């Protein structure tokens, strides 16, 4: 818990976010500056609690740090007031924001990514800079006294004689507390000797500030014993016969931290580059990087070690070669490479799209050439890749052959099923002719009609390129024409069909065709006096299909229930409707009966499979 006490005591805002941007820590400095207590914000998404920060530069930097582990620094110069913070006197606080990733092994749970946000009040620094601009014409002492860096003057013994306001603020000592004290009070234990450093400046006794020593970095010490990173520049000078040493102690805490972060980032970038190169070397593709002029600047291991059996465009080129010249002239010239070379030229000139082309070599090896611009790279240009797709081409040819064989087989199966069903229908017709009982002949005729309805489905499948779906509107027209002819033509029945063009899977088309066959047959059979007048419609509304069969016969009883009917045809309609999840609605009047069959539009899965097969075949 002492670590939390330290964070809470810092003169800076400290926030800890998890990978979901939920606030895990909110120190007292942030409570005072934002008026949001830790109890109000802990556990909440920072950007929900402060919605004005969503999609701000801070939000983007936090996401980048959580995703990549790269730190971020948001200075007040470009982002003066990201958080809604105020000083004790009510003025808006100008602040800097630093976002740092926390390593996974340091987390308490799960090893999840987290980030630490530090908010530093720079209002005083901003105000100080403003004062400096306003007093730029003031005399030397006024300038020095208001300088942004701490300036301390000592005598040759190292005793403090004067310090400017920046030193007072930086070390938290009042001038009267330090004047007469040793300057070592402000320096850490590792600081070099103040007097020895000043002696290197070589005073000339002219009574002016002498040449400043080369800056050195050291650790300072504040009043509260906390440490501060400093850059010290010193000079020895004389005035009125006395020697003095003036030191400028610049706070470089942020610079050193940034430098360390940049060093870590550079190391991470080198590691990433090494990992990328190892990944490219592990790929079987032949990869090269070209600069804007078309010269090769880098190749992967597969390219460098390509054997004579590959013969891809540009094989044998090494780093430094002009790839376009190598592939377009001499023995390496290949007319099949013209399109690839032209695409590369346009791409390198900055006005062409990425290149994607296939070509075949003399030894019947197929390659796919891919090239894409690489404007962010150090050389510009493009990355070029040749992929051996010979095996893929062989598999595609074999797959096309299998699809063709499957198509032929399915067509033959549907043809034979149709022939077999027609044979059964013919046998039933012959059997019907030999039956003396009219009632029995009617049953045989109904059975033959049902078989022919199914045979008609397979006939459509045999004649079409689709083997899993049929266009139901055309099928319905043919069914009605056949039923009209079988019923004695226009003198016995008049069937009007209005249908939309709708493809149905066979497992829906066959049951729906049988339902239509039963309803039309019943309408003709029970037409009453005069010819039957039947209207058949098939349409789609949104995600539902509607098949309607209307007649002008004597109608059905008002209490008719298809589920309780003992008629084989009605039981068959009810069973088939349940099979395709359809509902049956019956509207009966003395002037006729209307059957409405409503079912959901079948899923497109089978049709998509058929389309994919056609694309492979093509």
TrEMBL record:
Database matches in Pfam families: HATPase_c, HisKA_2, PAS_4, PAS_9
Domain of life: Bacteria
Keyword Kinase assigned: yes
Domain PAS: 136-182
Assigned keywords, A-Z: Kinase, Transferase
InterPro entries noted in UniProt: HATPase_C_sf, HATPase_dom, His_kinase_dom, PAS, PAS-assoc_C, PAS-like_dom_sf, PAS_4, Sig_transdc_His_kin_sub2_dim/P
Domain Histidine kinase: 412-603
GO molecular function per UniProt: kinase activity
Residue ranges of every copy of the PAC domain listed in the record: 214-264
Record bears the keyword Transferase: yes
NCBIfam families documented for this protein: sensory_box (TIGR00229)
Protein's UniProt name: Histidine kinase
Organism listed in the record: Azospirillum humicireducens
């Amino acid at each position: 818990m002492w670590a939390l006490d330290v964070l809470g005591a810092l003169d800076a805002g400290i926030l800890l976010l998890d990978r979901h941007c939920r606030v895990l820590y909110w120190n007292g400095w942030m409570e005072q500056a934002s008026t949001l207590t830790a109890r109000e914000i802990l556990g909440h998404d920072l950007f929900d609690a402060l919605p004005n920060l969503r999609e701000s530069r801070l939000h983007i930097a936090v996401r980048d740090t959580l995703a990549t582990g790269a730190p971020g620094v948001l200075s007040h110069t470009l982002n003066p007031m990201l958080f809604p913070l105020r000083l004790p006197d009510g003025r808006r606080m100008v602040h800097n924001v630093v976002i740092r990733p926390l390593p996974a092994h340091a987390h308490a749970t799960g090893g999840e990514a987290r980030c630490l946000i530090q908010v530093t009040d720079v209002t005083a620094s901003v105000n100080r800079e403003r004062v400096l601009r306003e007093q730029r014409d003031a005399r030397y002492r006024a300038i020095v006294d208001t300088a942004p860096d701490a300036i301390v003057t000592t005598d040759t013994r190292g005793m403090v004689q004067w310090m400017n306001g920046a030193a007072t603020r930086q070390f938290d000592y009042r001038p009267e507390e330090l004047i007469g004290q040793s300057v070592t009070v402000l320096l850490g234990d590792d600081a070099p000797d103040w007097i020895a450093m000043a002696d290197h400046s070589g005073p000339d006794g002219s009574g002016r500030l002498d040449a400043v020593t080369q800056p050195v970095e050291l650790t300072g010490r504040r009043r509260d014993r906390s440490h501060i990173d400093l850059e010290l520049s010193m000079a020895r000078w004389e005035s009125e016969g006395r020697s003095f040493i003036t030191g400028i102690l610049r706070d470089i805490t942020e610079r050193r931290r940034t430098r360390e972060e940049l060093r870590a980032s550079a190391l991470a970038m080198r590691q990433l580059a090494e990992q990328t190169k190892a990944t490219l070397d592990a790929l079987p593709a032949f990869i090269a990087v070209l600069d804007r002029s078309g010269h090769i600047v880098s190749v992967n291991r597969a390219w460098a070690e390509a054997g004579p059996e590959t013969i891809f465009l540009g094989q044998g080129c090494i780093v430094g070669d002009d790839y376009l010249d190598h592939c377009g002239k001499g023995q390496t010239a290949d007319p099949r490479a013209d399109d690839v070379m032209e695409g590369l030229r346009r791409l390198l000139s900055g006005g062409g799209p990425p290149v994607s082309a296939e070509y075949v070599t003399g030894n019947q090896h197929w390659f796919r050439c891919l090239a894409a611009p690489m404007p962010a790279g150090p050389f510009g240009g493009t990355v070029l890749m040749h992929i051996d797709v010979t095996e893929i081409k062989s598999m595609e040819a074999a797959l096309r052959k299998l699809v063709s064989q499957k198509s032929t087989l399915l067509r033959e199966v549907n043809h034979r099923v149709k022939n077999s069903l027609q044979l059964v229908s013919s046998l039933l017709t012959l059997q019907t002719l030999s039956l003396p009982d009219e009632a029995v002949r009617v049953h045989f005729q109904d059975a033959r009609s049902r078989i022919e309805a199914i045979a008609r489905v397979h006939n459509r499948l045999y004649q079409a390129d689709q083997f899993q779906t049929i266009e139901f509107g055309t099928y319905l027209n043919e069914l009605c024409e056949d039923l009209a002819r079988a019923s004695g033509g226009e003198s016995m029945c008049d069937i009007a069909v209005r249908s939309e063009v709708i493809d149905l899977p066979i497992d829906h088309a066959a049951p729906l065709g049988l339902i239509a066959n039963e309803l039309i047959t019943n309408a003709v059979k029970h037409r009453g006096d005069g010819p039957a007048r039947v209207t058949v419609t098939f349409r789609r509304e949104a995600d539902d299909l509607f098949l309607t069969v209307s007649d002008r016969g004597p109608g059905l009883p008002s209490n008719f229930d298809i589920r309780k009917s003992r008629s084989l045809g009605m039981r068959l309609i009810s069973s088939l409707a349940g099979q395709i999840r359809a509902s049956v609605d019956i509207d009966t009047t003395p002037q006729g009966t209307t059957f409405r069959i409503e079912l959901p539009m079948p899923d497109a899965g089978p049709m998509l499979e058929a389309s994919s097969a056609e694309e492979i075949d093509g």
